[in-house]
TrEMBL record:
Organism, as annotated: Rhizobium mayense
Alphabetical UniProt keywords: Hydrolase, Thiamine biosynthesis
Domain of life: Bacteria
Name of the protein in question: Aminopyrimidine aminohydrolase
SUPFAM superfamilies reported for this sequence: Heme oxygenase-like
All copies of domain Thiaminase-2/PQQC, residue ranges: 19-226
EC number annotated for this UniProt entry: 3.5.99.2
CDD domains named in the record: TenA_C-like
Family: Belongs to the TenA family.
Amino acid sequence: MDGVRQGTETAESFTAAAWDRIKPIMAEIERLPLLERLSDGTLPPEVFRHYILQDAIYLKHYARCLAIVAAKAPDNAQVLRFLGSAQKAITVEQGLHAGFLTQFGISSADVTAAEPSPACFAYTNFLLATAYHSSYAVALSAVLPCFWIYWHVGEGIKSKPAIEGNVFQAWINTYGDPQFAAGAREVIALTDIAARAASATERQQMSDAFARASQYEWMFWDSAWRLEKWPV
């Protein structure tokens, strides 16, 4: 994964600078054992089951965050554009979950009964709090890393030679899929539009929200690898 600024408008854009800021985080994400083992098909099934259950919990809350962000958009054009982009990504991910839940023997009752891990709980609450209490531009910056980092990771893994019989190939294909990429590019573009109208103080808040959400992305994958549970 080469860390190219996929979808940014110019080298001077807000999103280009935000991506530069998280380079150290991305370096850590790219070497996560969960992603390395998913890529070569050797990820233990119990780790993937834990991850996909947590991801199902996350996606439920993330979809609500996206709706709140859309409601804060400054005009109808951005509302519709953002909702369309978000729908592309959510639809793709929901299809992926449905397939893997069946493949790994996870029932709807299992999903309903699943409790968020500490990392999942912290991340979703950060997103919900930011979406509710911050401006459109800041909230948009907080939800962007999920789109962009998954796209970047998926493209990076997909560029490697495919491993025959990799049971996780559908995951790789999903996040390297043009439909998911299109949704990510749209949200990147909308974030740059919002940044151009923001004050210097708000742009700093946007950058901070983007960086914090990126840290949570690392924490989410790392916690799944460790089969994280509540310690007490």
